[in-house]
Amino acid sequence: MSAIDLPSLALILAALARGGTHVHVRDAHGLAALMPALTALGATVAAGETWRVQGRGMGGWCEPDRVLDLTARPGAVPLLTGALAAHDVTAVLAAESVSLTGLRPALERVGARLTVRRGDLLPGTITGTPWPIPALHEGLGPSKGMGLLLAGLNSPGRTGVTMLPDMEPALDLLRRFGAGVSVEDGNIWVKGYPDLLGPSDPIQV
What we know:
The chain is α/β, with parallel strands linked by helices. 27% of the residues lie in helices and 24% in strands. It is globular and about 35 Å long.
C-alpha cells in the first residue's frame, strides 16, 4: 500500500480552498511538478521553502490548457485524479510507469471517464463529471482512498473509504481546511461541498 503524499495533498487542498495558504515543505523533491499543474487548473502558486497558494474555491478549477506532467511526483497522481474526477473538466495526465489499477473503476463509479494505456498506465485522459456520485469505496490503499475523499469533497452527500493505518495525518489536513470528516465503523466519511478555507497558520508537512 502506498503512503499518502502529504505535501502534495496540502498543495492540492490549498488549490481547492478559498483564500491563501502557506505550506512549509520538508521534502520538496519533485514537488515542483505540481506547480504548473495547479496553475493550469487556475490556482496561483509560488514555490519555495514555503509555498504560497491562492486557491479557486471548491468546484472552481478550470480546464487545463496543457498536459499535467507528474512524472517527478508520482505520489500526487491518485490525489489529483481524485480531485479532477469531481470537476467538469478534461485533463491529460502524464506520469511514467504510473498505473491507475484499482483507482480507475472507483473514479468511474464517481462518474468520471478515463482513457489510459493497457494496464491502466498513464499517460491518459480524465474527464470529470459535473454530477459526481457519492459512495463507499472499499479495498483501496491509503493514497487511492484519499483521492476518492478529495472527489467526495465536490460531491453531494457523503463519500467514504476504508480507514487504514497511517491515514490520520491526512485526515488532520482535511480538517485544517474545514472539511467535515468522521470515522464510523472502520470507514472514513467526508461531507460534500464544504467551504474549504486556507488556514491562517502555515501548514507544516
